Each structure stands twice: as C-alpha cells, then as structure tokens.
Automatic annotation (TrEMBL), chain A:
The lineage of its organism: Bacteria, Bacillati, Bacillota, Bacilli, Bacillales. The chain crosses the membrane at residues 20-39, 124-146, 167-193, 213-234, 246-266, 298-318. The keyword Transmembrane helix applies. This is ABC transporter permease. Keywords: Membrane, Transmembrane, Transmembrane helix.
Automatic annotation (TrEMBL), chain B:
InterPro entries: AAA+_ATPase, ABC_transporter-like_ATP-bd, ABC_transporter-like_CS, P-loop_NTPase. It holds the Pfam family ABC_tran. The keyword Transport applies. It comes from Bhargavaea changchunensis. This is ABC transporter ATP-binding protein. The keyword Glycosyltransferase does not apply. One of its GO terms (molecular function) is ATP binding. Gene3D superfamilies: P-loop containing nucleotide triphosphate hydrolases. Belongs to the ABC transporter superfamily. Keywords: ATP-binding, Nucleotide-binding, Transport. Residues 9-237 form the ABC transporter domain.
C-alpha cells in the first residue's frame, strides 16, 4: 500500500501544475500578508494625521473606546427577546470578556499586531482548499481521460487499494499545502508585523483566562483542515464517479462559493443543519453562526458523516466500474 | 498439436451483457503455454470486451476467467500476477520519463528489482531514451515501452490488443520475432488480437475467431488443407472448358482460375492447355490466405450489429 502511495505522490509531483499550485500558494499567502501590511501603513498614516487635531481630548486609549462600543452593542443584542439560547450564551461570553478587559485594564491585540496575524493565519486554508480540490478532482479522472487507467488496473492490486492510495495522496497533499501556507503566514507575520502588549482572553469554565494566540491559531487551522477534507472528498467523489475533473472542480467550487448563501436562505428550516456546506468550523469556533443551535461537535459530526458517504460512493463506483475508456 | 500440457488460461462460459445486449455469449477457450493464439473477429464482434474481461478491467455477467488455475474474478491478485497486458496504444504517463513509468508499474508487482527493470529496457531496445519523458516518444517507442511494462514481472500469460499499431515494418518484424521467442523459449502463452490478418498468420500457432460474441472457429495454423493452384491463360472461356473437361471446379480469381490440385498433374494440364492453342500466362501454387478464410468464415466481416438484427 505504501508503494501505491509512493506512486501517486510521484505522479503528482511530476506534473508541472502541482508545482505551479505550490508556488502560487506561497506567493499568494505572502502577498496577502504584504497587502495587509500595506493597508495597515496607510491606515496608520491617516490615523496619525487625524490624531493631531483631537489629541487634547483623547486621554482614554483607542481600545477602551472600542471595547465600550462593543459592550453596548452586545448588550443591545442580548435585549432581543427572539435570541436563541446558543447565541445568547456566546454573546454572554463575549460580554464577560469585554467587561473583564475594561475592569482589569487588559488591552486586546491590535488589528495589525503580530499576534493578531498569527491568530488569523488559518485564513490561508481557503487557498489550500482551492488547490486541494483541483488535485482531488483530477487524481482519478485524469487516469480515465489519459487512458492510463487500463495500465493501472490490469495489475495484481485490488481496486480499493488503488483508490485508497489516491485518496491518501490527496489528503496528504491538502495537509502539506495547509501546513506550508501556515508556515509562510507565520514567517511573514514575524517579518512584517511587530508585537504589541495586548493579551488574548477566553472564557473557560465560567472564568476569564489568558491564553496564547497560538492556541486559537492551531485549533482553527485544524478545524479548517476538516473543512478542506470534506470538500476534497466531495471533489474526489465527483471526479471518480463522473470521470471528469472539470465537472468535479466546477461543482465543488460552486458549492463552496454559493453554499453559505444557500444555507442562509434555508436557515429557517431544519434541513439547513444537515447540509455539509452550511458548516464552516472555523467560523463556528469564532462564534459566528449561520444557523441557530448548531454547535461545533454537531457540525463536525455532520461533516464527518458526509465525508464517509462521499468515500463509500467513490469506492462502490470505482471498484464495480467496467473500464471501457 | 495435441496438447498434453495443462492450459494456462481458461475461459469458462464467459458471457457479458451490456444494457440488455449480449456482447459475449458463452465463450469457452483454452490457451496453452508456449503457444501464440491469434484472436480475430470483425469490428464489434466482442474482441475488446473479451480481452478486457481477461485483463480484469471488466466483470463478466456470468462465467469465469482462470489464469494459472486462479480465477480473475475471485482471486484477482493471485490471477493477475501471472498476466501481462498491452492494450491498444499503450497509454503511459506522458509527463514522466519512461524509466519512472516502469518504476511505477514495477511497484505494483512483487519483487521487481532495479536490475530487472534495466534488463527489460535493454530487451526492448530503449536504453538510450529511457530517461526522457514519454511525451517525447514516437508511437513505436511507446509500443516498446508498453511491451516493457508488460514483461517486467515475467508473466506466464501475455495479452496483446492490437499490438503492432503504429509500428513500422521493421518494428513489426522485430516485435514478431521477439514474441515468438518469448513463447518458444520462455513458454509464455500469448493471446494477440489484431486486424492485421497477415500479421496473425505469421505470428500465431493457432487462431480463434469470434463473431457476434460467439467463438465460431478455433484452428491450428499448421493445417494447410489441400493444395491449390492458380492458372491463367487466354482466352479464358476455353481455359474454363478445358479445366471442366478434366473434372475440376475452377473458381474465378482475377484474370485466371483456382483449382484444387497438387503438383503431380500440373505438367499434364499445362500440356493440354498448350495443345489447345491457348496463350498460357501463369501457373503457380496457390495458398489460401488467412484473409480468404476469415472472410469465408465471417461472411465478409459485416458490422456485427447488422447481422445481429
């Protein structure tokens, strides 16, 4: 089995497109952080020139004013009688943190601080997902379209093993891209942004506690990877069932881009909870829920179930199919 | 030849129905070690389907294929480890070198060393170009690489689907000699499908003819049948009269006739033609070609569908 995986890995990296994707990922992530840096510089200049005029009145630091505004906003939302219980709990936690900050004078990380950049580095997952989908869509389909499938399957290796090696190669590629994007993002955060004196807070067991930004950074990355796996499994299934890489890429991306809109439209109905594209685990972990009463474990279970179904369909079709290409 | 040996490959009651249409109908066939069997049939007769079922690429609706006593359907890995396959236009991974392609396929078999890979590369004469990308290869070189990948694991049974497509005449000849020596020296059983009847004729010990999914004939190539002669003289009408008077049934062929006759009575026949004042242009032994027989057997090779209706 390891030899089959070696084969898939060799075929993958002998294609120019794979290298192009890897390079685009690195350049893209570095570019995004560069752009953020540029925006922060522009904003910083504007803020400085503004500050000159109001310097006299501003004795409270900016963050306190923002925190107060946030506190008022949350309180207003909590006053809404239609609030779902899960949403209410989230808002209460947010409120607890804001109040703690104001009471204990604990500054949050600035938007353009190194820590904030590290915390948000799971954002690279979108780019990694795009490329992982492209690979997943083509890894079975191109064997059919190039006619090499006949050479591949007329061997003393059962088909499920061949398919497993292909899926493993896809997952490994997705993991590699995610990790590479993360590393580039971290390195660029260190190069371009300077740390500030803020502190990351979280509510743990009813109490506000300090945590390192690395905790959300890594946990969000792992959650984003779960999403990547589900979408790549979908693309993998379409690619192996319809033997068309283009269809698989198109359909996966279509669902990725329109999925949240569709779920938002359907959010009043129970069914929205059971659609795989409704659940962005990172957004959930950050407390942004599209659908009421969806918890992280529930969403993860739904995604897991979908991934299993996608794989079962791929295996059934692939191992039964008559090769006529 | 009478086969005292056990067959290496056996098709037992093989049938395949696709969308309600019987493509292969109760096919039974045995192939023996050291023998080259040609597989002939008009387009659409079911050659490719049969070959794909033997190569494990398609599943029979009923019946089984056995290779070295193992069922391709139920003991896939054990059966397939004895099979080498070259499908028409061997499609290799164009973006990799020939060598990497061979490494790729070698990893799918047990115990193929680097030395073995290079040995096969030398056998097929690709050593100079093996580290170049397959995309730069000519069709003939791809055929050689296709042969190399099929031979890596020393299969006991080799399936070739239209193997000489794209080979030049010298390449075809070399390929044929190579296959014959594989069969004779290594005892490999070879099953070749081809449209090139003259090729099959030169290469095979035995032919199997399929039409409309049924095996209609299996014969040894050594049975040449009774000898024939071709005779051409003008005027043709008088020649026909002479031939008929001597008890032959002359069959028209081009400008002359074919008669069933060995060499013994030919001088006598020539004398009477000349004595009759005819101008004799040609007398030569005539051997029915495989093509003649094939067309006789399959009724001119119409598209099978038309016959099936």
């Amino acid at each position: 089995m390891l030899k089959l995986l070696q084969n898939e890995w060799m075929k993958l990296w002998n294609k120019k497109a794979t290298w192009v994707m890897a390079i685009l990922l690195v350049v893209g992530v570095a570019g995004m952080l560069g752009l953020t840096k540029w925006i922060s510089t522009v904003e910083g200049n504007r803020a400085e020139s503004g500050n000159v005029q109001v310097e006299g009145q501003a004795d409270a630091p900016d963050w306190r004013m923002q925190a107060e505004a946030e506190r008022n906003g949350i309180s207003a939302q909590l006053a809404d009688p239609d609030l779902s219980s899960s949403r209410e709990a989230e808002l209460k936690e947010d409120l607890q943190i804001v109040e703690y900050r104001l009471a204990e004078d604990v500054e949050p990380h600035g938007n353009y601080s190194r820590q904030q950049m590290i915390k948000d580095s799971s954002g690279i997952a979108t780019l990694a997902m795009l490329f992982a989908i492209i690979v997943a869509a083509g890894i079975v389909a191109t064997e059919f379209s190039d006619g090499t499938i006949k050479m591949l399957l007329a061997r003393p290796v059962r088909r499920w093993k061949v398919l497993t090696s292909k899926f493993a190669a896809t997952a490994l590629f997705g993991a590699l891209l995610t990790l590479a994007g993360f590393v580039v993002s971290i390195v660029m955060s260190y190069i371009l942004f300077s740390p500030d004196g803020g502190t990351e807070l979280v509510v743990r067991g009813g109490e506000v506690a300090e945590i390192s930004v690395w905790t959300p950074a890594i946990s969000h990355l792992l959650l984003a990877f779960v999403n990547i796996i589900v979408y790549t499994t979908f693309a993998f299934m379409i690619g192996s069932v319809f033997r068309s890489g283009a269809l698989a890429i198109g359909l996966s991306l279509f669902i990725f881009f329109t999925g949240s809109t569709v779920s938002a439209l359907l959010s009043r109905y129970e069914i929205a909870k059971y659609l795989f594209f409704s659940h962005d685990l990172v957004a959930l972990a950050q407390g942004m829920t599209l659908i009421e009463d969806v918890t992280l474990p529930f969403a993860a279970a739904v995604l897991g179930a979908y991934a299993v179904v996608f794989l079962v369909v791929s295996y059934l079709v692939f191992s039964k199919r008559d090769v006529t290409a | 030849m009478a086969n005292q040996t056990e067959p290496i490959v056996e098709l037992r009651h093989l049938s395949k129905t696709i969308r309600g249409k019987k493509i292969i109908d109760d096919l039974n066939l045995q192939l023996f070690p050291g023998q080259v069997t040609g597989f002939l049939g008009p387009n659409g007769a079911g050659k490719t389907t049969t070959i794909r079922m033997m190569a494990g690429l398609m599943k029979p609706t009923s019946g089984e294929v056995f290779v070295a006593g193992k069922s391709v359907q139920n003991e896939f890995e054990a059966a397939m480890s004895n099979v080498g396959v070259i499908v028409e236009n061997p499609e290799m991974y164009k973006f990799m070198t020939g060598y990497k392609n061979l490494v790729h396929f070698a990893r799918m078999h047990k115990g193929i060393t680097k030395d073995r890979i290079m040995e096969v590369v030398r056998q097929v004469g690709l050593e100079n170009r093996i580290h170049e990308k397959v995309g730069t290869y000519s069709l003939g070189m791809r055929q050689r690489l296709g042969l190399a990948q099929a031979l890596l694991h020393n299969p006991k049974f080799l399936i070739l689907d239209e193997p000489t497509n794209g080979l030049d005449p010298a390449g075809i000849r070399e390929f044929r000699t190579y296959l014959r020596s594989l069969a004779e020296k290594a005892g490999v059983s070879i099953f070749v499908s081809s449209h090139l009847l003259s090729e099959i004729e030169l290469m095979c010990d035995r032919i199997a003819v399929i039409q409309n999914g049924k095996l209609i004939d299996i014969r040894e190539m050594k049975d040449e049948g009774r000898p024939h002669h071709y005779i051409e003289a003008l005027p043709a009408k008088q020649l026909r009269a002479i031939l008929e008077s001597k008890g032959y049934e002359p069959a028209e062929s081009g400008a002359g006739f074919i008669i069933e006759e060995g060499v013994e009575r030919i001088p006598e026949l020539v004398k009477s033609v000349i004595a009759g004042g005819l101008d004799l242009y040609a007398v030569r032994p005539h051997r029915k070609t495989l093509e003649d027989e094939f067309i006789e057997l399959t009724g001119g090779g119409q598209i099978a569908e038309a016959v099936a209706k």
